[in-house]
Amino acid sequence: MPEASLIERDRGLLWHPYAPLDGHPPYAVRGANGTKLSLTGSDGRSFEALDAMSSWWSAIHGYRNPTLDAALVEQSGRFSHVMFGGLTHEPAVRLAEQLTEMTGLDHVFFADSGSVSVEVALKLAVQYQLGQHQLGRGRPGRNRFLALRGGYHGDTFAAMGVCDPVDGMHSAFPANIAQQLFLPRPPAAHLVNGTLVSDAESVSRWIAVLEETVRSHSNELAAIIVEPVVQGAGGMFFYAPEALTAARRVANEHGLLLIVDEIATGFGRTGKLFASQWADVAPDIMCVGKALTGGYLSLAAMLCSARVAAVVTESPLRALLHGPTFMANPLACAVASASMDLLAGGTWQQQVAGILQSLEQALAPAMELESVREVRVLGAVGVVELHVPVDVPAVTAAALDHGVWVRPFRNLIYTMPPFISTPHDVATIGAGICAAASQVHG
User: What pLDDT does 167 receive?
Assistant: First the structure.
């Protein structure tokens, strides 16, 4: 079969994410439509599988969405790309207007990917603190960051520096990653009657550590950076919104900026339009990506408040020192703008609420398995945590036998279904995850 030949051509030629060149062979994609992927394995077997991953959390509207397809075709008929230096265009301006309205922030910087948007956010925070000092309103030397254990913010060097220092990639690049400060992972939270609930004493102790850490290092810190309420690639961990509220307060008290990384959580995934709304917190800087274009093209954005931007504009440097070649790519901006239009219709709220209810029911049987430590659900996020590391190839294959595509990691089998998933889709996803966990791990 042509797809089997494709897999052979791929092996040893292409690196795949976090995989060796001679790793387990990938599956070939023949097509994608709605919530389904058409796949072929290295043995020539074909699968029609529900995409339980939304292509790493990005394809929230599903595949071949007619509105997004039309936006892509229409813009390609005008122009596909122009440099953003000295030029502007309607898709970029319209998307920036939509994003500022949605977030309550005032200024937008378009980036190529989520990691790059984090790099830009960190640069902006340092430039802000330098500008404050140059304008006689701040302290010198504020160029470090306070992040959370368990956090993940991307694979580029500055982003790696604020990822978890133990479970991240620090050990592979010890001479290249800046040494930042880290707080313990905040106390866990669980959804109870629509509210994220945590142990109050544990939250109070964590806040005390936050306050003392910032007090001790205030002179060197530029900003606090967090994934609000949900830590994604660091463990699919849900934490107390009170921790985010405290981070906002402490940042204000010490003249630090608060950066929220909403790349994975933004645009409705957790049941709120942005996860920081679980704590009713307004950040100084926000990063968005992944679902921004509905999974069609790579695009991310860094947004900031007028107060932050004003300091940069008034300082001697004046400009934000970054400028990707494909910044504000018109095709990506046009599709993203159409995706934002779909979200503005409001149906995502009912969709995510329905997925939440279906996931709670569909994943509940996993708790009867000896291998399962915990099941947790928030919005359109479902997590089955095992006591042991997942056998990724075996679980992936077992889930495919039940018509479900998953990509587990560490000790987690999880799902982030497209928002258009039906109750039957979610029930199938849950049954496939439970069956795969039982078959492989017992």
Answer: 85
Catalytic residue among 51, 164, 261, 425: 261
Q: Confirm or deny that 152 is annotated as ligand binding.
A: yes
State how far the alpha carbon of 434 is from the alpha carbons of 133, 182, 419, in Å: 56, 35, 21
Task: Please check the confidence at residue 168 and state whether its pLDDT lies above 90.
Answer: no
414 classed as catalytic: no
Tokens of 82: 């122009």
Residues of the chain with CATH 3.40.640.10: 68-344
User: What is the C-alpha separation between 94 and 96, in angstroms, rounded?
Assistant: 5
**Tokens in use for 236?**
């699919």
Which is the catalytic residue, given 27, 63, 128, 152? 152
| CB neighbour list of residue 409: distance below 8 Å, 6 or more residues apart | 233, 390, 392
pLDDT at residue 170 greater than cutoff 90? no
Whether residue 257 contacts residue 287, with contact meaning beta carbons closer than 8 Å, is answered with: no
Q: Does 290 belong to an annotated binding site?
A: yes
Give the pLDDT band of residue 417 (cuts 50, 70, 90).
very high
What is the tens place of the pLDDT at every residue in 214-234? 999 999 999 999 999 999 999
- Return the exposure string of 126-141: e unless at least 16 CB atoms fall within 10 Å of the residue's CB, then b: bbbbbbbeeeeebeee
Q: If you write DSSP's letter for every residue of 361-397 in order, what string do you get?
A: HHHGGGGGSTTEEEEEEETTEEEEEESS---HHHHHH
Active site residue 290: yes
- Respond yes or no: is residue 106 known to be catalytic: no
Q: What is the CA radius of gyration of the chain?
A: 22
Convert the pLDDT of each residue in 35-49 to its tens digit: 999 999 999 999 999
How is the beta sheet containing 412-415 ordered, strand by strand? 372-378, 381-386, 412-415
> Each residue of 311-334: pLDDT tens digit?
999 999 899 999 999 999 999 999
Q: What is the pTM of this model?
A: 0.97
Mapped onto helix, strand or coil, the DSSP state of residue 148 is strand
Architecture of domain 68-344: 3-Layer(aba) Sandwich (3.40)
Q: How far apart are CA 411 and CA 406, in angstroms?
A: 13
The predicted model gives 415-434 an average pLDDT of 98
End-to-end CA distance of the chain: 34
**199 tagged catalytic:** no
Q: Percent of the chain at pLDDT above 90?
A: 97
Count of CA atoms in the C-beta half-sphere (13 A) of 411: 12
